[in-house]
Specification:
By secondary structure, the chain is an alpha+beta fold. Helix content is 42%, strand content 20%. The strands form three sheets. Strands 8, 9, 10, 11, 12 and 13 form a six-stranded antiparallel sheet that branches. A four-stranded antiparallel sheet has the order 4-7-5-6. Strands 2-1-3 form a three-stranded parallel sheet. It is globular, with a radius of gyration of 21 Å.
């Protein structure tokens, strides 16, 4: 089977996507698939297969821009012969439902969450509101709209006063902790909000949780299952963009050193949180654990990092699912979901035809 491996893209996580694609490509080949590299440049243009091959071989770490209008480059996808697409597109224009919508319109099976689940989980504010309504524990937070902050900054800051210092400020939409700032007083909060609202129209302000940062992968279609739970021990004050990608100072603890029963509870919460937003395919669910054992679901990443040092493949490997087996399950799940969607579409059309005949 020909698997189109899609990577690169327009987001700030472009280079991480290239690294993830190398690991995924190797695993796909070991699983017996024919890998078709489908690189996307930082301008959104689809690139010739030869460019993608160079990136997967480690010859280049950053894909070039395409030559010409983006629409004209879609021939690279159309002519690829890919039977299913495996996206390694982290962040916007890949993890937010846009790529998934393209696949649905093109009638192509794709690995990962649906259009809806991808779009919802990319918006931190919307996701938290859904979890909160369903009784899933989330950290105390308040939302700030850009228009409100620009017109009444002091009133907005007054409204945030009930949250204890320090607080974390983050754009509602975005990945890899881009724009996330820790604020310890009113002046720092004002500056942090101004920065976050340059990156999105809404910002989240959350109370700080002094505890463990934990991650748990989830996978499956139609039923979800969870892997082991791992801990991130940041190399800085918190696990920000620099700590993730620039300094490599964080420590990964696999599996996390938790009290009996806590890991199992987190695994159940990971499945519940992802299922609530209509999730299937794959995701990494991130937690904060406040002593002694109070968990908060922090966010969901529907195209998690898949590099050789990423938690997602490592935590599945911890429970006996090797990278080749992992990608095989993901591809098979994508094909099964596509078949089910086709059956539903046919049922709807048959029902309408019966109505018309009556």
């Amino acid at each position: 089977m020909r698997v189109g491996l899609v990577f690169g893209g327009r987001s700030v996580e472009h280079q991480v996507s290239v690294r993830s694609a190398r690991t995924i490509g190797e695993a796909l080949q070991e699983a017996g698939y024919e890998v078709v590299p489908l690189g996307i440049g930082p301008d959104g243009g689809w690139l010739p297969r030869s460019v993608g091959e160079r990136a997967l071989a480690g010859e280049i770490d950053f894909l070039p821009e395409s030559a010409g209008p983006v629409l004209s480059t879609f021939s690279e996808l159309i002519d690829s012969g890919a039977e299913v697409l495996f996206p390694a597109l982290h962040g916007t224009w890949g993890e937010d439902g846009t790529f998934q919508g393209l696949c649905e319109m093109a009638d192509l099976p794709y690995v990962g969450a649906s259009v809806m689940a991808s779009a919802v989980t990319m918006d931190k504010l919307l996701t938290k509101r859904l979890w909160e309504a369903a009784g899933i524990p989330v950290v105390d937070y308040k939302a700030v709209r850009k228009s409100d902050f620009e017109s009444q900054p002091e009133q907005v800051l007054d409204r945030l006063e009930p949250l204890p210092w320090p607080v974390f400020v983050k754009p509602s939409v975005g990945g890899s902790s881009v724009g996330v700032v820790r604020a310890s007083d009113r002046d720092e909060l004002r500056d942090a909000l101004a920065q976050a609202l340059e990156l999105d129209d809404n910002a989240l302000v959350e109370r700080s949780v002094e505890g463990l940062e934990l991650e748990c992968p989830v996978m499956g279609y139609p039923d979800l299952e969870a892997a082991a739970v791992g801990e991130i021990r940041p190399g800085r004050d918190f696990y920000d963009y620099a700590d993730k990608y620039l300094e490599d100072g964080a420590e990964l603890v696999i599996p996390a050193e938790l009290e009996p029963g806590v890991a199992e509870r987190l695994r159940g919460l990971a499945v519940e949180a992802f299922a609530l937003v209509g999730g299937s395919g794959m995701a990494r669910v991130d937690f904060l654990l406040e002593p002694p054992d109070r968990p908060f679901v922090n966010e969901v990443n529907t195209i998690p990092g898949f590099t050789s040092i990423s938690m997602f493949p490592k935590l599945w490997d911890e429970v006996g699912v090797s990278p080749p087996e992992l990608v095989r399950r993901l591809v098979e799940g994508a094909l099964a979901r596509h078949r089910d969607r086709e059956r539903i579409d046919q049922r709807i059309k048959a029902w309408l035809a019966e109505l018309a005949a009556d």
